[in-house]
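Worked example 3 (structure in, sequence out).
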């Protein structure tokens, strides 16, 4: 899927995916439903029982989950995170990880939105990709 999206967007730089691996679980960016129910740690802080959120059917969380093609429970199981690694003398070293708002510098549009009067507020929180412009309002 990532290769199809890369092709649709016209990107030529290399991409890698952690899809269908334990990588995101190892670096605390993905969680099982059981971990969400029992509590775990994300962004270096503990979180409690997320079960009541599973039943949310309206509002920002429900809309965002639907836009991502997921249920609220599925959506909560994946959190933003990135890690960097370095290969030195045949050994891979974990160099850095960031989560949540620690990633804002990577998403250039957030830097612009944070400087506007309403910041990231409002109902237009879902980004429209250039290859989908003709579908807006259709």
């Amino acid at each position: 899927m990532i290769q199809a999206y890369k092709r649709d967007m016209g990107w030529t730089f290399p991409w890698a995916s952690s899809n269908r691996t334990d990588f995101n679980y190892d670096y605390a960016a993905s969680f099982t439903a059981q971990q969400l129910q029992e509590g775990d740690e994300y962004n270096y802080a503990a979180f409690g029982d997320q079960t009541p959120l599973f039943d949310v059917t309206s509002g920002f969380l429900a809309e965002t989950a639907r836009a991502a093609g997921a249920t609220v429970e599925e959506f909560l199981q994946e959190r933003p995170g990135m890690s960097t690694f370095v290969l030195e003398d045949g050994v891979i070293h974990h160099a850095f990880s960031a989560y949540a708002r620690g990633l804002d510098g990577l998403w250039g549009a957030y830097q612009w939105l944070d400087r506007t009067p309403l910041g990231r507020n409002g109902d237009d929180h879902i980004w429209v990709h250039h290859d989908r412009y003709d579908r807006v309002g259709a």
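Notes: The chain is about 30% helix and 15% strand. The beta strands are 40-42, 45-47, 81-88, 91-99.
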